[in-house]
Amino acid sequence: MTDKNTPARKSRRHRGASHGTSARHLVSPAQWRESMAIGAPPSPRIFAIAGFQAALAVLLAIVATHFSPWPQLVGFASLGALAALFGRFATVERRMRIVVICALLLALGVLVPSLASWAGAPPWMMAFALALVAGAATVAVSWWGLGGPGAVIIVFAAGAAYHPVGSGAEVLARVLATLAGGVVAVLTCLVTDRWRAPELKALRLPPAHVAPWSHQWIAAGRITACAALAAWIAFMAGWQHPAWAAIGAVSVLQGGHLHITMNRALQRMAGTIVGSFIVWAMLAQQPSFWMVVAAIVVFQFLTEVVIGYNYALGQITVTPMALLMTYLASPAVAASMPVERVLDTILGAALGIVFAVIFSSVDDRVYLHEHHSKDR
Fold first, then answer.
1. Closest by alpha carbon to 297, among 135, 126, 55?
2. CA separation for the pair 62, 77 (Å, rounded)
3. What is the DSSP letter of 256?
C-alpha cells in the first residue's frame, strides 16, 4: 500500500494546488452550487433563543436611550447590545464571561476611530485605524474563544464611529453609550439564559478547530491589510461609508478554508443585494422612529433564526437591520445607503477573495483541491 505522504503522492497533490487551479475551483459551477445549498444548524432552538436575546437587548437599549437625556446616542447603545449575539453554544457560566468581553470589545471598537477622528486624523489614517480594529478583533476572538459571529461585529461597531467627532465629551459619550448597551446585553442574557440549558445538555458539537498562533497572527495581518485597502478604495471612490467595505472583507476572510471564504463572498453579495432592496423599499415610505425600531428588532431575530441554514439568508435580514441602525444615527444619508451598501459589499468581498487566494498556503490550496475532487 502506498503511503499518502510519499514524495510521489505529495507531488500529485501539490500539482492541483497552484494559485491558478485554486482560482478556477473557486469560480466553478460546483462552488456556486455549494454556496446556494441549504444546511441544517446544530440546534434551531438555540439559534432562536440567541436571536430573541439579541433582539430583546437591542430593543431595551434603544428604548432606554431614546427616553434618556441623550437620545442622539441610540445607535451606539444598540451596537453595545449586540454583545448578546456571542457565546450561544457556551455553557451558561461561560456565556456571561463571553458577553462581558464582547461588550468591552465593542466599546473599544467605538473608541479607537472616535479618538482618531477627534485627533484630526486624515482619511487614510482613519482607514488604518479601522483596519487595526479588524486585526486586533480577529486576534481577540481567537484568544478568548469568543466564536461567532466573530470580529465582523466589532468592525461594524467601529464603522459606526467612523464619522467626525467634535470633542472629547462626544468620544466619551459614544463609548459610555456602547458600554450601557453592553450592560443591557449582559443583564438580558443573565435573566434569559436558563432557556438554553436543557438544549445544551443534549447537544453534542464537534471540538472547535484551533489554528496555531502563528497562523492566527498571519490571518490577522491579512485581514488588517485587506480591510485597510477596502476602506481606502471606498473612500477614494467618494463613498460615504468606507467602513462597510472593510466589514465585507473581514466577514469573507473569517472563513477557515478557501471554499468557505468563497461561499461567504457569494452569499454575502447575493444576500446584501436582496436586503438592500428591502430597506430601500422601507425607507421610501418614510417610516416613523418606532416603525424603524420594530423592524430592527424583527430583522435581528430573523437573522439568527435563518443564518444557520445559509449565510445568504442571514444577509438578507441582517442588511436591513444594519442599515436601519445606521439610519437611526444619521437619517440624512438614508437615500444613498442601500446602493452604497451593495457597492461596498462587492468591493470588500472581492478583495477578500483575492487576498485569500494570493496569501493562501500550500495546505490551504491542497485542501481546496481535495474538497472539489470529492464532487467529481
1. 55
2. 7
3. S
Distance between first and last Cα of the chain: 24
Residue 300: all three cell numbers together: 435581528
Q: Is residue 135 part of a domain?
A: yes
pLDDT in tens, 46-93: 889 999 999 999 999 999 999 999 999 999 999 999 999 999 888 888
* pLDDT tens string 86-104: 998 888 889 999 999 999 9
With a cut of 50, say whether residue 1 has pLDDT above it.
no
Contact 75, 328 (CB under 8 A): yes
CA distances, 305 to each of 145, 201, 238 (Å): 22, 20, 36
Dist. CA 82–CA 318, nearest whole Å: 12
Residue range 271-287, pLDDT digits in tens: 999 999 998 898 888 88
Q: Which stretches of 37-73 are DSSP H helices?
A: 44-66
Average pLDDT score over the chain: 86
Is the pLDDT reported for residue 12 higher than 60? no
Q: What is the maximum alpha-carbon separation in the chain? A: 76
Instruction: Give 163's contacts (C-beta < 8 A, 6+ positions apart).
Output: 117, 330
Check: CB of residue 80 under 8 Å from CB of residue 179: yes
pTM, entire model:
0.88
In a domain, 6, yes or no: no
Instruction: Please tell me the total count of domains within the chain.
Output: 1
* DSSP conformation letters of 172-231: HHHHHHHHHHHHHHHHHHHHHGGGTHHHHHH--PPPPP---HHHHHHHHHHHHHHHHHHH
33-59 per-residue burial string, b: 16 or more CB within 10 A, e: under 16? ebbeeeeeeebeebbbbbbbbbbbbbb
- Segments forming the whole domain that contains residue 153: 41-204+214-373
In a domain, 20, yes or no: no
Length of the chain: 376
Torsions phi, psi of 278, nearest 5?
A: -60, -50
Q: Is residue 17 part of a domain?
A: no
Q: Output the nine-digit C-alpha cell for 243.
A: 467602513
